[in-house]
Amino acid sequence: MPSEFDLIARHFARPTPQAVLGPGDDCALLKPSPGMELAVTTDMLAAGTHFFADTDPAPLGWKTLAVNLSDLAAMGAQPRWALLAGSLPKADEDWIAAFMEGFFACAGRYGVDLIGGDTTRGPLHLCVTALGEVPSGGALRRDGARAGDDLWVSGRPGLAALGLAHLRGRTVLPDDLRAPCVGLLQKPLPRVELGMVLRQRKLAHSAIDVSDGLLADIGHIAERSALDAEISLGRLPALPENVDPGLARRCLLAGGDDYELAFSAAPEKRGELSRLADELDLPLWRIGRCLEGRGEIRLVGEEGEPASVDWKGFDHFDEEQNR
Amino acid sequence: MPSEFDLIARHFARPTPQAVLGPGDDCALLKPSPGMELAVTTDMLAAGTHFFADTDPAPLGWKTLAVNLSDLAAMGAQPRWALLAGSLPKADEDWIAAFMEGFFACAGRYGVDLIGGDTTRGPLHLCVTALGEVPSGGALRRDGARAGDDLWVSGRPGLAALGLAHLRGRTVLPDDLRAPCVGLLQKPLPRVELGMVLRQRKLAHSAIDVSDGLLADIGHIAERSALDAEISLGRLPALPENVDPGLARRCLLAGGDDYELAFSAAPEKRGELSRLADELDLPLWRIGRCLEGRGEIRLVGEEGEPASVDWKGFDHFDEEQNR
C-alpha cells in the first residue's frame, strides 16, 4: 500500500507558479500582491451530510473546491491559492486520483494553485481553505446593503436542490430537467467572474453566495446591513415545468447548494446589470428590494400583498430539516 | 437546540484586531504586512486517529490550534490568523464551549486571531488553517541544510508518545513521569519563539517540526536537502528512568506528536545555541550532523559505529503501525 507521502507526491503536488513555496514543507509561502487584501474562507464537507459516501469522486473533487471559490466570488475576490485537507477511510488510489482530477479541473478553470494540505485516516471528510485577493477596501460584504437597493440573484437557484431531491428518491424529475439539476448539484459553477465584475464596476453594495438557501442567505444580508429584505414572489425565476410546484418553490427559496450570488444594487444600475447578464450569459433576476427595517425578510405576492412561507434555510444542526 | 449560527456567534466569534474583517461574512479579510511573505498550513484531526473521541475538550481545543502553530514555528513565522472548521456529531454546547476555551487560550498565548471557520454535522473532525508572516526570503525551510551542519532537536521528544502509550494501557508510567508525558501529549507547546529567534538571528539553515517522529522528520530534511543525516544514539536525550527502555527509545525516535523543532545549524553556532537554550529555558540537543549523501538517515552508536533501527515514523496509511 502506498504511504501517505507517496500519495501526496503522486496526486497532490502540481506546479504552483503563484506561490513562493508549494507543498512539501511545513508551510506554503505566498507573496501577497501590494495594495491587496487577502480574502480567506474554509469549508468542511462531510460524507453523509454534504454528499453521499459513494459519490463519483471526480465531480466531488470539483465541488469541494468550487464551494470555497463561491465564497471568494461573493467578496469579489480573485481566487489564487487553496489548501486541501482530507480524512479518508482508506488509501484508495483510484478514488484519490479521480478526486484530484476533478479538484485540479476546477483549480485550473479558476486559476488556483493548490499550495498545501494534509491527509489522514478517518471517516470521509474534506476541508478546503481558499485564498484570494481583492483591492484594499473594495471587497463586497454582506453589511453594505442600503435602503432602496434592489435585490438580485444569479443563475437558476433551486435546481441543485431539485437534483438532490431526485437522487434521494423524493421526486422523479422529467428527463429534460434531470441532467441540468444533477449537474448543478454535483458540479456547481462558482460565480467568480460575476463577483469580480460587480466589484470592479461598483455595481453592487453587498453580496453573498447562496449556499444555505436563497431566503436564508438574503436574510444574512438583511441582518448584517440592518435592513429588511422584501422578496417579490412574482419576480422569482419561473418554476420548472412538470415538477411538483410546492417542492420546486421550496427548493428555490430554501434548497441551498446553489452557489449563485445574491446581491444588492442601486436601482440606477438596472440597465447595466441587464447588459452584464447578456455579457456573462448568466441570468440575473431582480427579485426584491431593501427597506428600512430590522434585518427581517418580508415576502410579498403578485399584487404586493404580504405573503408567507414557514420554513427557512438549511441548518446543519437543525434535526427537523436534516431528516 | 441552538442553531449553527447561534453557536458560531456565541462561541466562535471574538474580537479580531489583526483582521480587516473577521467571522460573519463569506470570507475573512486580511491586510498582509508590506515586505512579508505569508506562511500557510492546514491540519485535519480525526477522532479515533489523532485523539480519543472522549478526550477532554479544553486541551483538545488547545492542541488543535497548537499543532498548526508548530508548522508556522518550523518556518520561523510569526503566527497571526487562524480558521477553524469542525464536523461535530451533535451540537453539544458544553463541549463546544470547553473546546473553544482551550482553542482561544492557545490563540491568546501565541497572538492569533480566529478569523473564520465552518461547522457541520458528522463524525468528529477538526481542521485548522493557520497563517503567519515571515520576512520575504527569510523562512526556515526543510531544503536548506548544508553538509557539515549539526542537527539539533528541542525539548523532550518522545515523552508525548510515552504519555499516549500510558493512556492506551501499553505501559504504566511511574507517577513522576505520568503528568509531564500526558501533559505534553494533550497540550503541546509549539516552539514559536525558538523558530522566530532561529530565523531572526540566522542560527539555522533548515528546520522542521517533529510531528511524525524524530527520525522520520529529520529524514524529510535530509531528503529535501539531498544530504544524509547522521544521528548519534549517544547524543540523544537520556531516556527517562523506570520506563521500559525499548519503548522509551522507540517513542523518542519514532513516537511523533512531539511538536518540537528539529533543525540544522553550522557548527560555529554551537555556543550561541547553548546560550539560546538558557535564554528560552528550553533544552536544545545536538544529536547529529549532515553529511554528503542521498537523503538517508544513518545511525551511529556510542563509539561512532553504524547502528540500526528497523522502524520509521508514523504514517497514517501504514496499516501495520496503526494497529
* CATH T-level fold name of the largest domain in chain A: Phosphoribosyl-aminoimidazole Synthetase, Chain A, domain 2
Category by helix and strand content of chain A: alpha+beta
The name of the CATH superfamily of the largest domain in chain A reads PurM-like C-terminal domain
What pattern of helices and strands is seen along the backbone of chain A?
A: HEEHEHEEEHHHEHEHEHEEEH
Question: Runs of chain A with pLDDT <50, length 5+?
Answer: 312-323
- The helix content of chain A, as a percent range, equals 25-40%
Radius of gyration of chain A: 20 Å
Mean pLDDT reading of chain A: 91
Q: What shape does the CA trace of chain A take? A: globular
* Count of discrete alpha- or pi-helical segments spanning 4 or more residues of chain A: 10
Name the assembly state: homodimer
Strands in their spatial order, largest beta sheet of chain A: 7-9-6-10-8-11-12
Instruction: For the record, give the distance between the C-alpha atoms at the N and C termini of chain A, rounded to a whole number.
Output: 38 Å
CATH architectural label of the largest domain in chain A:
Alpha-Beta Complex
Biggest sheet of chain A: strands, sense, closure? 7 strands, mixed
What does the model show?
Two copies of one chain form a homodimer. Chain A is α+β, with helices and mostly antiparallel strands. Chain A has two domains: 4-135, PurM-like, N-terminal domain (60s Ribosomal Protein L30, Chain: A), CATH 3.30.1330.10; 142-307, PurM-like C-terminal domain (Phosphoribosyl-aminoimidazole Synthetase, Chain A, domain 2, Alpha-Beta Complex), CATH 3.90.650.10. The first copy, chain A, contains ten helices and twelve strands. Chain A has helices at residues 4-12, 57-74, 93-110, 159-167, 175-186, 192-200, 214-225, 245-254, 270-280, 319-322, and strands at 28-30, 36-46, 78-88, 113-121, 125-135, 150-154, 206-210, 227-232, 260-265, 284-292, 297-300, 306-307. In chain A, the strands form two sheets. A seven-stranded mixed β-sheet of chain A has the order 7-9-6-10-8-11-12, with helices on both faces. In chain A, strand 11 and strand 12 (306-307) form a beta hairpin. At the A-B interface, helix 1, strand 1, strand 2, helix 2 and strand 3 of A face helix 1, strand 1, strand 2, helix 2 and strand 3 of B.
